[in-house]
Design brief:
Elements lengths: L2 E8 L6 E9 L3 E11 L2 E5 L2 E3 L5 E3 L6 H25 L1
Antiparallel strand pairs: 1-2, 2-3, 3-4, 5-6
Amino acid sequence: MQITDVRVRKVSKEGKMKAVVSITIDDEFVVHDIKVIEGEKGLFIAMPSRKASDEEYRDIAHPINSGTRDAIQSIILDKYEAALIEGEEEA
């Protein structure tokens, strides 16, 4: 599996959510609405989810194992950091 495209949309309002990201896998499959969140231990990603009838949030799409999650998170956070630097250069 290759992440072939990452699109970062920074969130301008204050809060823990810093960006919303879409990734393309193998130039064939897109996952939208991955969130970049600032937590107590730093940045992490939250996969797209929706609220179930029991008021709990359930992931709509997610990696099956931690290695894949770590790889996706690493790529997304690298692109997010690059987008921040690019935004500072434009300012």
